[in-house]
Amino acid sequence: MTDENFLSAYDKFKNTVFSVILNYVRNAEDASELSQDTFIKLYTYNGEFDSDEHMKAWLIRVAINSCNNHFRSRKYISASPISEEIPSGEKYEIDELIEVVMKLPEKYRIPVHLFYYEEYSIAEIAKILDLSEATVKTRLMRGREKLRKTLRKEDWL
Amino acid sequence: MNENKYKKAIDDVCEKEFTITGAQMLEIAKAASQTERNITMTSTKKKSIIGKIIGTAAACVIVSSTAVSAMGYGPLGDTFRKFFGKDKTTAEIIDDGHYVDINQEITEGIFTVKLNSVTGDNSSPKLLFDVTVNDKVLAEKNDRIQLFAYILDEERYFNKLDEYAMWDAYGEKDPEINNLYHVCMDGASAFMINEEEVITAVKCISFESDPENRKFDYDVNMEYRFTVPDEALKDTSLEWYTGITLSENGIDYNLRYAEYGSYDTLMQFNYAFKGTELAGGETDYYKVIDKFDAQWHKYAGTLKLIADGNEYTVKEIGASYCDTEGEAIEAGTCSTWLSFPSIDYTRTDSIELIAGDKSYKLK
Prior knowledge:
Chain A is mainly alpha-helical. Chain A has helices at residues 3-25, 28-44, 52-72, 96-102, 106-116, 122-129, 133-151.
C-alpha cells in the first residue's frame, strides 16, 4: 500500500477501528495499541480492496480478530470474578450513553455498536461477525431491550 | 436508540483517546514492517474485561415428571416448589392437573433437547424442556443457559417465519446432573390452542460464559411438531367489550377484550393512527411507531384496575402492531396491550378500569 493511500485510509477509518476495539476491550490504552496493530496489518497487507467499504469491513474483521487473540492470550481472566462495572482506572471522559452500552454483554455490545455507529445492516453485521442473520437480529433486539431498561428515556425507545 | 447522540459520544471518545496522527501512524507502521512488532500489555491493564450482566431470573423452571419420580419426591407441583419456589402460579396449575407430556427428543451436535411437556393456561402457555449440554467446559462454566425458539403454526412457520420473533427463556442447572438444564418457556397463546398443531423450533442455545470458543450462541435447528393436548392448558375467562374508549392526546384507545388468566389480566386495545396529531400526516405506521409506543407506555402506566375494592397497577405494557392489510384486524387499525395482575374473574363481583378521573365498568 502506498503511503498516500495508507494516510487516507487511516484518516477515514481510525475512529471505526478504535471504537470497535474499545467496545471489545473497554480499555482505552489497550484499544489504542490494538488499533495500531490493526493499521500495521493494513500497511503490510498485500491484497487489494474493491472499495472503501470493502477495506472498512476488512479492518473491522482484523480488529475483531486482534481482540479475540488478545483475550485468548489471557484465559486466566475468565477465572476471575466478573465485574459489571467499567474498570475505575480507565479514566477517559465517558459519556453516560457509552457507559451503558459498554456495560452490555459483549455479544450484544458489538452488534449494537456496528448497527448504530457504523449503520451496518443486519446482513452486513452477520457477515462481519460470521454469525447467522437470525442471531444478529436476536442480539440486537436483546441489546436494545437491555439499553431501554437501563436508560428509561423516551428518545431512546 | 438515538444513534446520532451515540455517534457523537463515540467520536468524542475517539478524539480524546486515540490521538495518534496519520504521520505518526505511518512511521509506526513503517518501523513495524521492518521488524515484527510485539505488542505487550502491562499487567495493570489486564483487569476485569469480560463483563457479563446477569439478567433477571428465569420465569419458571421445572423438572420432568420422570425425574421427579426417580428422585422420590411427591407430586410434580410440590417438586416444582421444592426446587425453585418462584413460579407459584405454574405449580398450582400443575396441581390442578393441567400438565401433559410431549416427550420428543432431538440431538444435534453437543446438545440434546427434550420437549417434555405443556402446561400453563390459555393466555400463558408454557413449554418445558430438558437440555443436555455434552461439553464439559460449557456445562462447568454456566449455571444457566438461554434457549431461543419459534413457536408457530405450520403455515406461518414455513411461509412467514421472517415476520415473527423468537421466544426465549433461561434454564437453570439441575442440582444433581451437572450438564442438564431445565427450561420453562412462555409459549405463543395465538398458536398454542387445545387440539391445534404447533411447530416449536429451537434455533439457538446461548451461554453467558464460553471461555474456550468465545462463541456464546450456538445455532441449532431442532423442530418439534405436536398437537396441544386437550386439557393441557387451564381455561381463562375471555370477555369482549364494546364502547369503552380511553382518550389521550388525540388518540382513542378502544378496549377490545380482556382475558382474565392465572398469570395476569391481559387487555387488548385498538386505535386508529392516521389523521392523529402524533402521526403528523404520516401514513406509514412503522415510520412513527416509536412515537406511538412511547405515548402508549407513558399513558398506560397511569391506568389502574379495581377488583372488589382492591387496586392493581399495571404489570406490563406491550408494543403496538399495525395491520396495514387488514389481515388480523381492520386495515389501518393498530393494536396494543397491557396487563394487570391476575384476577379470578368468576369469583370477583365488580371490576373497574380507572383512567385519570374516569372509571369504566368491566364487570
